[in-house]
Every structure is written in C-alpha cells, then in structure tokens.
C-alpha cells in the first residue's frame, strides 16, 4: 500500500507458439478486454466522452491494439495508477483505494536481465506475436500511488458514467408522451363506446317486450346487433382451454411482477451498490424465493375461479414447472462454461445451494400460498355461463390470432426499447448499468402500456363475438418478451461478436431465458388487466 514500484516483472518469460499467437491476435483484433479487481474496484482505462467532453473510467483495458498497418500488438506492460484516500486523522496511516487506472503498452524488447533486474523496453518496438514461430514474452508493470480527495462513499462516481444523458431524457419523455396519448386514446374510445353500449342495453332491458310493435322490435334487433359484446355474456367467463397451465403461468408471472418491482425500487433507493459484486443477482434470487407465497396464492385462486378440479396438481406444479424449466436451461448453459474451464462458471456446490433454497424455502411458501388461495372463494363473473357454448364467427383482419398477438406486443416493447438498448449495451460491452431511476419509470410505463393495449384487444374481440379472450390476452401482452428476444438477436448481429460456439450458445440461451421471463411477466399484466375490465363492463349491464 502506497509504495511505488517501477519496472517489475510479473513472472518468468512466457513463450507463445503459433497456435496461441493466432488465437491471441484474433482476440486483439476483436477488441477483447482484460478485467482486474483491486480492493473491489475494477481496473479501468481513462476515456473521454466525445459528446459531453467529460472524463470517466471505463472498466477493463484492452488486451492489445492494432497498428496502422493492421498488425495486432500485444500489451505486455502495465502502468497501474492507484488513487487512495486517507481515512481518519492525517497522522494515521490508514488508506482506502478509491480509483484504479491501468495504462497498457506494447513493448517488444522487455526482458529479465541475468542479474535479476528488469529491462521494460521503453521506447522500443511493440510486441508482435508471430504465428509461424515461438515468440518470447515478458510481462512487466509499474505501480504509482497518488493521494486523492475522492471520498470512499463516492469512489464509484467515476465509473458510473451516463453516455449522452440527453438521449435518456428524450427517450423517457418520448415514451411518457406516447403512453399518455395511448392511454388517453384507449380510455376515450372505450368510455364513449361503452357508455353508449351500456345505456342501450339497460334501456332495452327496461322495455316491456309484450308492448312492442313491429317497428320497436326491429329497433330492438338493431340495437342488439349493433353492439356485439353483450351477446357473449353467457360465454365470456367460460373456462379457457388448459386452465391448469394458464393458472401456473399467471402465478409465476405475479411472483416475477412483485419481485421485479421491489428489486427496481431497492435499486432506485441506492440499496444495490455495484461495489457488492453479485448483490443484484442475490437480491433477485432471495426476493423471488420469498415471494413464492404470492405465486402459489395467485395460481390457486385463479385456477379455482376457472373451475379447475385438479387442485393437487396445481399446488405441485406451480413452484416446480416454470422454475424447473429456468433452472434446467441455466444448468445446460453452465455446462458449456464448465467444459471450457472458465472461472465464470457457477460452481456445482452453488447449484446445490440453489436447489436447497428452492425446495426448503420457495416450495413450502408456494404450497402455503396455494392452500390459502384454495380456501378463498372463487372470483365469480357477474353473468352466468351458458351450458352450450355460443358459435364464434370466423375472425377477420387484425383480429386473427397471429396479427392480433403481434400488434398487441409491439406497443409495450416500444415503451422500453431505448432503455433496453442501454441495458444490453452495458451487459455486453463492459459497462456498468446503474440508471435505475430511468428503469423504474420505464417499468411503470411498460405496465400501463401493456394493460391499455391488452384491454383494447379484448374489447375488439368481444365486439366481434369472440369470447376466448383469456389466452389471447396473455399471449398478446406476452409477445413483448418475443420482441425482447428478437431485439437481442439484432443486437448480436450488429453490435457484438463471439469467437466460438460457447459464446454464441450462452448469448442466445440467456437472451431466450430473459425473453421467456418477460413473456410471463407482461402476459400476466395483460391478463389481469383484461380480467378486471371484463368484470367491470359485464357488471354494469342488466342480464336476465
């Protein structure tokens, strides 16, 4: 601590054969970074933001560089500059590391001399790895300590840099205006249409049909044909196909919804510091486990409202099916990391710990929630369900299943698209994402947009006398997850590249996993918003 070192060798001379040189040169050309940690802080390079003209620390530093002739050169010397802050009284020698900068350099003449001293080859030619013969490489470094006024509490401020904050504010304002107009338009259309429909239906019910003449009867028929959603009042609360699967998805979606909201709120309050590596993932795992009660309750209550009878199967599958699929995919992807001997692989003992937490905490909480849910009374519709299902007219235009699902999911995705780009950019280009205020607002906008678009879809379906709204609402809103996965593939094709099969499999696999979880989350939001809407409108009319 606080002791400068000049021109030190890391180890003995290392020889690169042709195969290793070819591999390394390819990674240099692809812009690979080296990542170090010093006292919990990432070693970084000092960069200048071309737009705001501010200096910031970019985590990681380049493995090498490419000269003007296109020749890769290996960085084998590192000037390490460590900023430290005095803690307590000036007379006490207590220091804290508050910044780490690394300035890499390529030096082809560096070597360890016979007397033990080190020649760092400063000012000499760069280190070029030959792909035809062995190339000796000596790794050297220098360490420079400098006192800094940066306090320990603000040591991360240099790393947490917002790239062009105007774009963030512009995208947020744009999304907000978009959502306000969308919700206003949906509300205006539905309120005006529903107000007229409900008034007509209730006025029609007040007419004594025995006193009607032919003209009045014709008017009645015209009113009834004009507004089609009342015609399906006897089928709109009919049990959907595969009620068990839908209730399981909704239970897990409610669990993810609450977990995501609480996690983002914690991050917004500054409780998830990037100084604690892996703390975000740990928080997500713990919250998801603790909210197992909510998942079991929602699944059981929904399944009972559907009229399902296989309650034992619902209790067992709710905490096992979706988490089991997620864990299986995670385990499969981790096998690729294990096979390559990467230090980023999740240890087998950690896997066992996850299974233990899952079965000891999450499953019992989910079972308890299911038990409470089945004890509650079922959510009944305001209208009775007919014994014989009504014939459904063939859908036309955008009300067909595939077009309606694609159109419903695109609007919520548009509300989060820009923020999603920044998240992807941070995940895959060695940046730290910490703009949780923007993320919290975008999460709220996504919820509102998903609810509004799904309600509009369901209203149009009911007007077309199609009462099978449950799965359509879930899949239509959940299509946002499909667009998230498609966006990840486009980002892969345009922004990042992987040198082998493992990187590609990991990227596609984790992107598919994220898209699947977003599918369940947004699908749940859309379903319950539509359910509340259907309960409201059919509770406002008089039905004999």
What does this entry look like structurally?
The chain is of the alpha+beta class and 544 residues long. Helix content is 54%, strand content 12%. The protein contains 13 helices and 16 strands. The chain has helices spanning 18-29, 165-206, 214-226, 243-268, 279-290, 292-305, 311-317, 321-339, 348-375, 401-428, 436-463, 469-494, 501-538, and strands at 5-9, 14-16, 33-34, 37-38, 41-42, 44-48, 55-59, 61-62, 64-66, 72-74, 77-86, 95-105, 111-112, 118-119, 135-137, 140-147. The strands form seven sheets. A four-stranded mixed sheet has the order 1-16-11-12, with no helix packed on it. The longest helix is centred in the middle third of the chain and has 42 residues, at 165-206. It is elongated, with a radius of gyration of 31 Å. The N and C termini lie far apart (85 Å).
Termini separation = 85 Å
What is the number of E strands? 16
List the secondary-structure elements in sequence, H or E. Answer: EEHEEEEEEEEEEEEEEHHHHHHHHHHHH
Q: What overall geometry do the principal axes of the alpha carbons give?
A: elongated
Beta percentage is 5-15%
Low-confidence stretches: 208-212, 214-226
Mean pLDDT: 85
Structural class: alpha+beta
Q: Helical amount among residues, as a percent range?
A: 40-55%
Q: Rg, please?
A: 31 Å
How many alpha or pi helices? 13
How are the strands of the biggest sheet laid out side by side? Answer: 1-16-11-12
Note the main sheet: 4 strands, mixed
Overview features:
13 helices; alpha+beta; two-stranded antiparallel sheet; 544 residues
């Amino acid at each position: 601590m606080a002791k400068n070192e000049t021109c030190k060798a890391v180890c003995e001379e290392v020889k690169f054969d042709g195969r290793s040189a070819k591999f390394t040169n390819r990674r240099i050309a692809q812009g690979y970074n080296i990542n170090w940690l010093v006292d919990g802080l990432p070693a970084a390079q000092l960069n200048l933001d071309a737009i705001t003209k501010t200096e910031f620390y970019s985590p990681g530093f380049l493995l090498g560089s490419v000269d003007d002739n296109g020749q890769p050169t290996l960085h084998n010397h590192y000037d390490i500059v460590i900023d430290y802050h005095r803690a307590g009284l000036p007379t006490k020698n207590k220091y804290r590391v508050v910044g780490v900068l690394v300035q890499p350099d390529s030096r082809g003449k560096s070597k360890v001399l016979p007397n033990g001293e080190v020649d760092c080859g400063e000012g000499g030619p760069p280190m070029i790895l030959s792909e035809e013969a062995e190339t000796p490489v000596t790794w050297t470094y220098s360490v420079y300590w400098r006192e800094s006024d940066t306090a320990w509490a603000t040591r991360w401020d240099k790393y947490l840099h917002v790239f062009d904050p105007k774009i963030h504010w512009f995208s947020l304002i744009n999304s907000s205006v978009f959502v306000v107009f969308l919700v206003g338009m949906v509300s205006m259309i539905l309120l005006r249409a529903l107000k007229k429909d409900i008034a007509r239906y209730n006025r029609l019910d007040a007419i004594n049909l025995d006193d009607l003449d032919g003209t009045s009867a014709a008017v009645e028929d015209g009113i009834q044909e004009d507004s089609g959603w009342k015609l399906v009042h006897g089928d709109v609360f009919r049990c959907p196909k595969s009620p068990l699967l839908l209730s399981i998805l909704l239970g897990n979606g409610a669990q993810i919804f609450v977990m995501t909201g609480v996690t983002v709120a914690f991050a917004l309050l500054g409780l998830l510091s990037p100084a604690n590596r892996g703390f975000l993932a740990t928080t997500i795992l713990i919250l998801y486990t603790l909210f197992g009660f909510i998942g079991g309750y929602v699944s059981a209550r929904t399944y009972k409202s559907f009229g399902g009878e296989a309650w034992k199967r619902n209790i067992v599958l709710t905490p096992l099916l979706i988490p089991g699929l997620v864990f299986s995919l995670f385990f499969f992807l981790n096998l690729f990391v294990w096979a390559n001997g990467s230090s980023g692989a999740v240890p087998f003992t950690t896997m066992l710990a996850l299974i233990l937490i899952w079965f000891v905490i999450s499953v019992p909480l989910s079972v308890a929630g299911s038990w409470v849910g089945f004890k509650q009374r079922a959510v009944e519709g305001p209208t009775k369900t007919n014994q014989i299902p009504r014939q459904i007219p063939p859908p036309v235009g955008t009300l067909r299943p595939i077009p309606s699902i694609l159109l419903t999911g695109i609007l919520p995705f548009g509300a989060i698209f820009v923020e999603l780009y920044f998240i992807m950019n941070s995940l895959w280009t060695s940046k730290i994402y910490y703009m949780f205020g923007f993320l919290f607002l975008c999460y709220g906008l996504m919820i509102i947009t998903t609810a509004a678009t799904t309600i509009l879809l369901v209203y149009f379906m009911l007007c077309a006398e199609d009462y099978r709204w449950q799965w359509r609402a879930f899949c239509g809103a959940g299509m946002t997850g499909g667009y998230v996965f498609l966006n990840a593939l486009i980002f892969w094709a345009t922004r990042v590249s992987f040198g082998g099969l493992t990187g590609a499999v990991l990227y596609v696999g984790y992107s598919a996993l994220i898209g699947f979880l977003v599918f369940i989350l947004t699908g749940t939001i859309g379903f319950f918003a539509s359910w509340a809407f259907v309960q409201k409108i059919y509770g406002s009319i008089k039905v004999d």
